[in-house]
Design a protein that fits this description.
By secondary structure, the chain is an alpha+beta fold. The chain is built from 5 helices and 11 strands; from the N terminus they run βββαββαβαββαββαβ. The protein has 2 domains: about 5-135, Impact, N-terminal domain (Ribosomal Protein S5, domain 2, 2-Layer Sandwich), CATH 3.30.230; about 135-200, Alpha-Beta Plaits (2-Layer Sandwich), CATH 3.30.70.240. The chain has helices at about 35-45, 80-90, 110-125, 150-155, 180-190; strands at about 5-10, 15-20, 20-30, 55-60, 65-70, 95-100, 130-135, 135-145, 160-165, 170-180, 195-200. The strands form 3 sheets. Strands 2-3-6-4-5 form a 5-stranded antiparallel β-sheet, with helices on both faces. Strands 9-10-8-11 form a 4-stranded antiparallel β-sheet. Strands 1-7 form a two-stranded antiparallel sheet.
């Protein structure tokens, strides 16, 4: 059976690396959507407007197929790729790492830059709490009030999460369960008289 778990960081963390007067400050963030990336980077650019470079890399999704690197003016391949390399070697996803460089006046060369961005990113990851999360499927179910007991029995027995409930002649609940239990749970629910379900999202 395919795994429905993934590793990410619990909350934001920082790391720092200094080399020949340059400071490389790394900020790691837990993210789950590409739309979260730009506001974070814009905020850091404002807070660190005197810094020369704001390089970053991110990885999103359990499949780890949605990613991007940005060298922000550093020689190609010397910043974003070393950062994503640290994300990959830690097996993480749903993470953004931004490394801000305050230039110290001395050029570090390609190998020096790669080492600096790699080390700063590694420090941020080392200082973070790494957690394992379970991929959840979210559905909306509707059913007649007379089927309430049947539905509640299944939700309790299968440990299915519930939110946004509305109970009337027609009842509606948002539910969530781990991805690996999808087939089993939907099969049980579909046997309840009058019940309909609608897929919402997976996250």
């Amino acid at each position: 059976m395919e795994s429905d778990t993934y590793k990410t960081i619990k909350s934001s963390s920082e790391g720092i690396y200094k080399e020949k007067g340059s400071r490389f400050i790394a900020f790691a963030y837990a993210v789950s959507d590409q739309n979260e990336i730009k506001p974070i980077i814009d905020k850091l650019r404002k807070e660190h407007h005197e810094a020369r470079h704001h390089c970053y890399a991110y990885m999103i999704g359990k499949e780890r197929t949605m990613w991007r690197v940005n060298d922000d003016g550093e020689p190609s391949g010397t910043a974003g790729r070393p950062i994503i390399g640290q994300i990959n070697s830690s097996g993480l996803t749903n993470i953004l790492i931004v490394v801000i460089r305050y230039f110290g006046g001395t050029l570090l060369g390609v190998s020096g830059l790669i080492n600096a961005y790699k080390t700063a990113a590694a420090q941020a990851i080392n200082n973070a709490e790494i957690i394992e999360l379970t991929l959840q499927e979210y559905y909306e179910i509707t059913y007649p009030f007379i089927s309430m007991n049947d539905v509640m029995k299944i939700l309790k027995e299968e440990n299915i999460g519930q939110s946004d409930q509305s109970f009337d002649l027609e009842c509606c609940i948002k539910i969530n369960f781990r991805s690996s239990a999808k087939e089993k749970n939907l099969n049980r629910l579909s046997r309840v008289e009058g019940l309909k379900y609608k897929y919402l999202e997976t996250k």
